[in-house]
Amino acid sequence: MTTTAETTATSGLAGALVRVSALVQQVFADVSREHDVTPQQAQLLCKLLDGSLGMTELSRLMNLEKSSLTGLVDRVERRGLVTRVRDLHDRRACKVGLTCDGARLAAQAHAAVTERLDAVTGELADADRQRLAAILTDLLSRPGNG
Amino acid sequence: MTTTAETTATSGLAGALVRVSALVQQVFADVSREHDVTPQQAQLLCKLLDGSLGMTELSRLMNLEKSSLTGLVDRVERRGLVTRVRDLHDRRACKVGLTCDGARLAAQAHAAVTERLDAVTGELADADRQRLAAILTDLLSRPGNG
DNA sequence: CCAAGTAGTTCGCAATATGAAGTGTTGGTG
DNA sequence: CACCAACACTTCATATTGCGAACTACTTGG
């Protein structure tokens, strides 16, 4: 067993997940480009949609080294989409938050991604959509998958 | 409407898809790193698992500009995982194919990704796994989503 | 008060991605 | 046949991404 690519056939689920992931990434890339930001920048903005976050928290959330995040935030800040605010209680730390422009862009990009993904899943039967949502939610709720 | 992040709540499906995508990307990144290649390089190798492909075909398959692909193939070729073979019938074109090392690495990486994703979905009930696979396959079979 | 830990940044480096421009090659049309 | 548009791929300049190691500044426990 585990001879060649055909191994995929065992379940097909893993392969399907990889392909779905590629599809989502493509949607994300398209939307980001239409809003004149990179996918990473768009993702950063979206993470901030429900409140400012510290660098460490953000790096954990985005699976990035802190040093990588510094640069990313630098570039997004230079575009005026985000600001660093020094934390009053801990002068080492800072909170990264959206500017007005950033919030607008983030909301639009988020809506566009959602809309397009809903369009993709919209071709499914309603029952399947429900089931899909339920199963994925279940999957993501397991420890380690969140 | 479309006020803030809470908009996600409408269906939750789009958000779940995004999160699943991130999960898959992380698995891919981990596995790639363990095999000492970048995710992009691993992806390239996997595309070649069932036969050599031309640059144009590859660029379409990977949603990359041809110029981007040239560099990617260069680096992977430099590592001895892939070779360019001039096409006899069309001297403009070339076929990119796996070397022995490349094929081994690709197979291992592919197996590792599959294994890890199966582990992730293994926590689901069997019936849900089946349903999930069926729905995703259906989704991916729709024109434009493949 | 001092040692250890924590939050971020800086630096050097390699990889990734794009678009514009360039090199050959092919194939059809006049 | 000669030409030229289309095609396959490469080159180049540029920006972004990402890592790890070393660094600064601040906080906190003892």
Features:
3-stranded antiparallel beta sheet, homodimer, DNA-binding, about 150 residues, mainly alpha, about 60% helix, 6 helices, disordered N terminus
**Model regions low in confidence, pLDDT < 50 over at least 5 residues of chain A:** 1-9
> From the structure provided, what is the oligomeric state, counting identical versus distinct chains?
homodimer
Report the average pLDDT across residues of chain A: 93
Q: Which chains share the greatest interface? A: A-B, 52 and 54 residues
What spatial form of chain A do the alpha-carbon principal axes imply?
Answer: globular
Report on the architecture of this protein.
2 copies of one chain form a homodimer. By secondary structure, chain A is mainly α. Helices cover 61% and strands 8% of the residues of chain A. The first copy, chain A, contains 6 helices and 3 strands. Chain A has helices spanning 13-34, 39-47, 55-61, 66-78, 100-121, 126-141, and strands at 53-54, 82-86, 94-98. In chain A, strands 1-3-2 form a 3-stranded antiparallel beta sheet. In chain A, helix 1 packs across helix 5 (100-121) and helix 3 crosses helix 4 (66-78). Chain A is globular, with a radius of gyration of 19 Å. The relative contact order of chain A is 0.11. At the A-B interface, helix 1, helix 5 and helix 6 of A face helix 1, helix 5 and helix 6 of B. Chain A binds a DNA duplex (30 and 30 nucleotides) through residues 38, 40-41, 54-56, 64-72, 74-75, 87, 90-94.
